[in-house]
Amino acid sequence: MSAALPKPIIEMNAVSKWYGKFQVLDNVSLNVQKGERVVICGPSGSGKSTLIRCINRLEEHQQGQIWVNGIEMNDNVRNINRIRLSIGMLFQQFNLFPHLSVLDNLTIGPRLVRKMSQKQATELAMHYLEKVHIGNQAHKFPLQLSGGQQQRVAIARALCMQPEIMLFDEPTSALDPEMIKEVLDVMLDLAEGGMTMIVVTHEMGFARTVADNVILMADGRIVESAPPARFFSQPEHPRTRQFLEQILSH
């Protein structure tokens, strides 16, 4: 008899959400194990971003349950805050404070939320800036950096909060093609370090290389979920085959 899997770090059970009469998530269930890397792809408007935004309550789900680290995401403010402490999130836009230096962008969260000293926060910030290969940019301001560098600063800032889980919402879609690789390389390093990751992306090369599981969403539902080798070479659902033909032919 095989050993039971440990309890998932993220559990979504029959989650549904509406914007008015439009149902954007339709009975979505998903389990993510600690250290697992999940890539979510699908056409625009399929519910991908809404799904991951519900995990840290940037969007509120109306039906079903979401559990993170055994804590239910519900209306309890204490639960919400505890869950958010364990999650880092990266968006299409960098959302850096333009009037603060790169270093100050990274230290403000640990000082205010984690109650670190300035010295501790600065040491942590420099550690993660080196990790994303831009330690020499610490005293510049965001607008003095390229888009790829700003997104790497945003990754370092999220890591300074020492999350257990990283959520990425199309992190390369606002970047010029030559800057995409430098951000994906940093994400690859994170994955190799064992970070639990859910990544919404159209970068199929990244999905093939990094993902433990690739998910296709369409019309608010999970249409297919499989390891990359099977997802790309033997997709079961016609919708998956259609999506792959469209995206891989570009």
Automatic annotation (TrEMBL):
PROSITE patterns, alphabetized: ABC_TRANSPORTER_1 (PS00211), ABC_TRANSPORTER_2 (PS50893)
Q: Where in the cell is it found?
A: Cell inner membrane
UniProt superkingdom: Bacteria
Which protein is depicted? Glutamine ABC transporter ATP-binding protein
Report whether rRNA-binding shows up as a keyword of the record: no
Annotated GO molecular function terms are:
ABC-type amino acid transporter activity; ATP binding; ATP hydrolysis activity
Q: What is the lineage of its organism?
A: Bacteria, Pseudomonadati, Pseudomonadota, Gammaproteobacteria, Enterobacterales
Entry-linked InterPro entries? AAA+_ATPase (IPR003593), ABC_ATPase_HisP-typ (IPR030679), ABC_transporter-like_ATP-bd (IPR003439), ABC_transporter-like_CS (IPR017871), MetN_ABC_transporter-like (IPR050086), P-loop_NTPase (IPR027417)
Any idea which UniProt keywords this protein has?
Amino-acid transport, ATP-binding, Nucleotide-binding, Transport
Its family? Belongs to the ABC transporter superfamily.
**The organism of origin for this protein:** Superficieibacter electus
Q: Cellular component GO terms, alphabetically?
A: plasma membrane
Q: How does it sit in the membrane?
A: Peripheral membrane protein
The protein's gene is named glnQ
Domain ABC transporter as annotated: residue spans: 10-244
